[in-house]
Automatic annotation (TrEMBL):
Similarity-based family: Belongs to the short-chain dehydrogenases/reductases (SDR) family.
Cited Pfam families: adh_short
SUPFAM superfamilies: NAD(P)-binding Rossmann-fold domains
Keyword Acyltransferase tagged: no
Name of the protein: Short-chain dehydrogenase
ATP-binding found in the keyword field: no
Lineage of producing organism: Bacteria, Bacillati, Actinomycetota, Actinomycetes, Kitasatosporales
Length: 251
């Protein structure tokens, strides 16, 4: 169960090597999270992440999980929930892809969509049903400002995040009043391994800053969190910009 301050004592991360997720886990561990499950493809990186968190004091476990294998999600996540209640599920997996390459190779584009959207729909629904069955908990989904309006430079990734964002908002509406809290997190450009080598966008942020925003959002039981907050105004303007103007913007 959550502690007196509303912070989770148990955490399940879907995408156990995500820098944002691990920064969030470290922050929550400092606030009394005592059990952490890292779900991801078995790899040295996953075990290393588990070891680093374990050194901070909590019980840390890994569980095999593949976003591209929806048929395995119920069994994989069921093992976690069978070990006790989960206060927070953080859905943090996703891939950026390479826009130029993916336009030439549609199979690559489909992999982006299947990972970021289809896999997330499956894992999100399985997690939501388990949280609802236990009668409490939060589901936090990492979306992106890229989903607010498709840009020429990354519309494949952006469209997958747009679908994920809409799905998560609808799921939150469906779970309203059940005791399950759903929160969408919309970071801008995050300085991480995934964006290494890319030109940095204005209002760039860090995994640690996103983690802080997630903690604040959990305390407030927010439904949508922008990181940084100024992006809410920026993206509102871009979303309503006439299409002819939008095409000429250097974004």
């Amino acid at each position: 169960m959550k502690d007196a301050f509303g912070m989770p004592q148990s955490l399940l991360v879907l995408g156990g090597t995500s820098e944002i997720a691990l920064a969030t886990a470290r922050r929550l561990i400092a606030r009394r999270t005592r059990t952490v499950w890292l779900a991801g493809r078995p790899s040295p990186a996953l075990e290393q992440a588990a070891g680093q968190l374990r050194a901070l004091g909590p019980d840390v476990h890994t569980v095999p999980f593949d976003a591209l294998d929806p048929e395995s999600h119920e069994a994989a996540l069921g093992k976690v929930f069978a070990n006790g209640d989960v206060d927070l599920v953080l859905l943090a997996f996703g891939i950026l892809g390479d826009q130029a390459t993916d336009e030439r190779e549609p199979v690559n584009a489909v992999r982006v969509a299947q990972t970021n959207y289809t896999g997330a729909v499956s894992a999100g629904l399985v997690s939501a049903r388990a949280l609802q069955a236990q009668g409490h908990g939060s589901l936090v989904v990492l979306s992106s400002v890229a989903g607010e309006r498709a840009r020429r430079s990354n519309f494949i990734y952006g469209s997958s995040k747009a679908g994920l964002d809409a799905f998560t908002q609808g799921l939150g509406d469906a779970l309203h009043g059940t005791g399950v809290h759903v929160m969408v997190v919309r970071p801008g450009f995050v300085r991480s391994k995934m964006t290494q080598g890319l030109e940095e966008a204005p209002l760039a942020t860090t995994p640690e800053a996103v983690a802080t925003a997630i903690e604040v959002g959990l305390r407030r039981r927010s439904e949508v969190v922008w990181v940084p907050g100024a992006l809410r105004v920026v993206m509102s303007a871009l979303r309503h910009a006439p299409r002819g103007l939008f095409r000429r913007l250097p974004i």
